[in-house]
Specification:
Layout: H1 3-15, H2 18-25, H3 29-43, E1 48-51, E2 54-57, H4 59-80, E3 85-89, H5 91-97, E4 103-107, H6 112-120, E5 126-129, E6 138-146, E7 148-153, H7 165-170, E8 172-176, H8 185-189, E9 198-203, H9 206-215, E10 220-223, H10 224-234, E11 236-240, E12 248-255, H11 262-276
Parallel strand pairs: 3-4, 3-5, 8-9
Antiparallel strand pairs: 1-2, 5-12, 6-12, 7-10, 7-11
């Protein structure tokens, strides 16, 4: 039997959707439908039936999925060992881990759901981000805590070597578009309700934020390690944020199917080792 038929079937089964399966597998919807029909002719039973606007698996489909899921995951793991692992990594840690071998790094997407979907659909092997998950299929490990800081240009007309809480809320800010748990970064880290900041500019990149802060009077924010790496070159001064915030906790998330995979374990340990060197 063609293994591609089983792979296609399992994608449709997991998502109860030919559309989503076609996107995951990067093939057309007619090709997915044709594969399901071919498999149905092989097993001699219907695998999906229409329900409302979607489809639902039959008893035969459930039985087949239970039999093939683990073997297909093992085959997929063996095939993957020939290639670099794909990792989504938050921008503020990329400079620490970029030299880890056997990894293809991409900056983590802004949207939280996009990160989870990529892990579930096996488009990416590991995500390094501040998000947390209660999904049983995902494993998360806390890998490093970072101090949140803010930055102003050295020749700022109103802010000198120190930054008070009053000055922090009086001045205008540059904020990241990224949101976690439907909150911006400062709200996400705050232990209580805080006064809203005066956000003048939103950007999708911390690097862009710091460059903007170096040429304006706006306040930027970053992790301390990233800030201290770029501040001297950009003429920025690093300040503690003058409100009570939790540390920024970064986590490594990956699918449970890779928990005991040798290549995956080796890569996870290499990433953690690279981060420990920069603590």
């Amino acid at each position: 039997m063609d293994l591609n038929l089983l792979t296609t079937f399992l994608a449709v089964y997991k998502h109860s959707s030919i559309t989503v399966a076609s996107e995951q597998l990067d093939i057309s919807q007619p090709a997915v439908s044709a594969a399901i029909k071919r498999l149905e002719s092989v097993v001699g039973k219907a695998l999906f039936v229409r329900e409302g606007r979607g489809i639902t698996p039959t008893g035969a489909a459930v039985s087949l999925a239970n039999k093939i899921e683990d073997p297909l995951n093992i085959i997929g793991t063996v095939e993957q060992q020939k290639n670099d692992l794909k990792v989504y990594c938050t921008e503020s840690l990329l400079h620490f881990v970029s030299q880890v071998e056997g990894v293809s790094f991409t900056e983590a997407p802004l949207e939280e759901e996009e990160l989870f979907d990529a892990l579930t659909a096996q488009k990416v092997d590991i995500v390094i981000d501040v998000l947390s998950s209660k999904k049983h299929s995902l494993i998360e490990e806390t890998i490093v805590d970072e101090e949140p800081v803010c930055l102003t240009r050295i020749n700022h007309p109103r802010i000198g070597e120190t930054l008070s809480k009053e000055e922090y809320f009086q001045e205008e800010h540059i904020a990241l578009k990224i949101k976690r748990a439907n909150m911006n970064t400062v709200e996400f880290l705050s232990e209580s309700d805080i006064e809203p900041r005066k956000v003048r500019i939103e950007t999708s990149s911390i690097s862009s934020m710091l460059i903007l802060a170096s040429t304006t009077d706006y306040i930027a924010a970053s992790t301390r390690s990233f800030a201290e790496m770029l501040a001297p070159a950009l003429g920025l001064r690093v300040h503690p944020i003058p409100i009570k915030l939790r540390p920024i906790t970064f986590r490594m998330l990956y699918h449970r199917r890779y928990a005991n995979d040798e290549q995956h374990i080796k890569t996870r340990e290499a990433i953690k080792s690279a981060l420990r060197k920069h603590k």
